[in-house]
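Q: What changes when molybdenum atom is included in the input?
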Amino acid sequence: MTSVTEPRTGYRTCPLCEATCGLELTLEGRSLVRVRGDREDVFSRGYICPKALALVDLERDPDIVRTPLIRDGDGHREASWAEAFALIDSRLPPIIAEHGPDSVAVYLGNPNVHNLAGLLYNPVLVRALGTANLYTATSVDQMPKQVACAYMFGSGLSIPIPDVDRTEHMLILGANPLVSNGSLFTAPDLPGRLRALRARGGKLVVVDPRRTETARHADEHHAIVPGTDAHLLFAIVHTLFHEDLARPGRLEQHTSGIDVVRDLAEQFTPETVAQATGIDAGEIRRMARELAAAERAVVYGRVGTCTQEFGTLASWLVDVVNVLTGNLDRPGGAMFTRPATGGSNTAGTPGVGKGARFGRRHTRVRGLAEHFSEFPVAALAEEILEAGDGRVRALISVAGNPVVSTPDARRLDRALDALDFMVAVDIYLNETSRHADVILPGESTLTRGHYDVAFTALSCRNIAHYSPPALEAEDGSIHEWEVLLRLAGIAAGQGPEADLRALDGFVARGVLERGLRNALSPAHGADLEAAWSEVADGEGPERLLDILLRTGPYGDGFGRDPEGLSLTKLIEHPHGIDLGPLQERIPEVLRTPSGTIELAPGDIVEDVDRLRASLERAHGGLVLVGRRQLRSNNSWMHNLPALSGGSNRCTVQIHPEDAARLKLEEGKPVRVSSSAGSIDIEVEVTDVMRPGVVSIPHGWGDGNGEARLHVAAGQPAANSNALSPADLIDALSGNAVLNGIPVTVAPV
Ligand SMILES: Nc1nc2c(c(=O)[nH]1)N[C@H]1C(S)=C(S)[C@@H](COP(=O)(O)OP(=O)(O)OC[C@H]3O[C@@H](n4cnc5c(=O)[nH]c(N)nc54)[C@H](O)[C@@H]3O)O[C@H]1N2
Ligand SMILES: Nc1nc2c(c(=O)[nH]1)N[C@H]1C(S)=C(S)[C@@H](COP(=O)(O)OP(=O)(O)OC[C@H]3O[C@@H](n4cnc5c(=O)[nH]c(N)nc54)[C@H](O)[C@@H]3O)O[C@H]1N2
Ligand code: SF4
Ligand SMILES: [Mo]
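A: The predicted holo structure follows.
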């Protein structure tokens, strides 16, 4: 018998991590049967990692939530969309009416940044709710970098990206791109790009308390004491000044505060920080000299430098060194992307702006400042649990698993039980969504179009790449953007049957008006009605994307430049369009009040006292850091057989000397405890760890009967964030400290 359905091929960008690799999908009927790298993808050239292959398992995972679920006693039962939305409409608006908009919190998780629905329609939902209680995964991730960039360059999304393909020297702190493939640094096949850097005679230096996969493939590895990157970087800055190696070059005329930084660095001599950092003073001087001597060099810091006690200072100093060595905004250094969908630094006045303003609101209980209109998620549990006016009573969680991903995880787990009402938009019934009164299914990767609005703004080349849906949505299913818009309609008091088409049109017109108002847009000043008539028939994320592209920096300006970008043009290029290497953008990219790179922002300068004080602190005792695993993705891919077992084990790694002293035996269970709690976990004795530092991967749940994760439930696991104390935050950004947590380890 011959098969009824011929295999078909579709192309799409991988939605799983920031690398944005091109995939070639093979489908039979509605089934995804094979995933390969798309060799013709203009950016990834066929590269993929094991996670993408697991999309086949994800699509057929029987545990995936495909119909709305409604709480029924201790469990959940299936319901129709109409019943689910009606229930939300009967519960949510009364809470808002009685207790005000802030009584409803929103948590937005990481996958939102990887899909158009989340990126473009969550803001609509948050606006409709009008709540100040917005929390996202940003405050357990890159908030310090965004805060530092906002101070220095005037926008939280003006983040300098390593120009890896042209650099000759790269210093990486607190990132493990051989496993993670990079973050705030979109570069498919980053492992290959780093190999190429060394093959052309360049040098790769890694600073990490663990001898990571990346460290093992580097020229040099420095096993730093966790939380001391700012000390190390300050000593590098000190050396640059002291040895007259600071050469900002053309940046000098565009930079203010260089002298202030020189004064601040004065006391951070390599000798002063050597003990704290665990890195020899001579080595620090050599690192500084080599950075200064290299023709093109770049410093890059990521999760390990952000989710720590001095996250903002470390993130700031990364770019201070890039500026002082003349490597900011220069080929082979750290450069600014110019994204095709535009952004804060492609609008407004080139070279000047309002800059950063934080703390317009504060959390009720601890008084923590807002950054970019969101609060630190480390404060969410107390905002729910602590009685009083303004308490959070309801939560909408979209593609997030904060019970596993955020600090004091067990307390948050209890807090979610204390809510009056919770909605989760998620593809799994997991540690977080199990608390929801209503779970609304997210959408399959195959039935939605894809464009990386976020990551094309953070990539090491300028790229535009749209993938149309590989499959039509099934009858009766609802696209994720429609789910979010439906929730927005309910929040706005329009009920569960609001006119989605009208709401969507309103959203799209707003985006179009903003685009036409932007003096830097090729569509600036175009006739609104004429432009609207070109998109009036469209809908959803695709229409918004089309407007962003056409009004963006390479756009067709609604007909003004027929060669320019539009969604139609991208559809004609299924393997993406390469818009070329990164270009110099200073001073035009700046949006600071002074019109300069503000190298010594006041708030940051003040925080240096805290850093200085830490030098006098007594050391000793074990500290915990995290790690990522190649065949895993934060908290939600442990349920896929293709990614289970093997190297993917939830263990605590510890140096042999520490293990001997504590009488810990390889493979045996141990109890790891911190001020927040304790977990039992298997021990792995390995000299990849720096003595005094232990490592546990995040993303594993405690195993909970109510979750529907059959494959994951069979694997030994423990929630590392049960150990992260919610009171440990980076002072300037409110970001959680997830690395460098004091712990004890003992045999069970
Ligand atoms: N200790 C420690 N903690 C950490 C980190 C660390 O390094 N150490 N890293 C932090 C970082 S960098 C991040 S980004 C956060 C992540 O924190 P979160 O974003 O809270 O967690 P994820 O594991 O990404 O969970 C995503 C959720 O989205 C669901 N999901 C997946 N795809 C879709 C979809 O298409 N639609 C919908 N609606 N739902 C979907 C999944 O089922 C899951 O419930 O964790 C942070 N936590
Ligand atoms: N396979 C896989 N890929 C992923 C993910 C995943 O879960 N799995 N998650 C994705 C996400 S959401 C993100 S944000 C990115 C993150 O990508 P990366 O930033 O590369 O994240 P990690 O691999 O956690 O690397 C952080 C490193 O910091 C080190 N570290 C800890 N504390 C310190 C410190 O104080 N100083 C220094 N210098 N180093 C320290 C840790 O040992 C670790 O090696 O990865 C993405 N890609
Ligand atoms: S590296 Fe990231 S984008 Fe590329 S295939 Fe793997 S998960 Fe997908
Ligand atoms: Mo992340």
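Observations recorded in class: The first strand starts at residue 8 and ends at 13.
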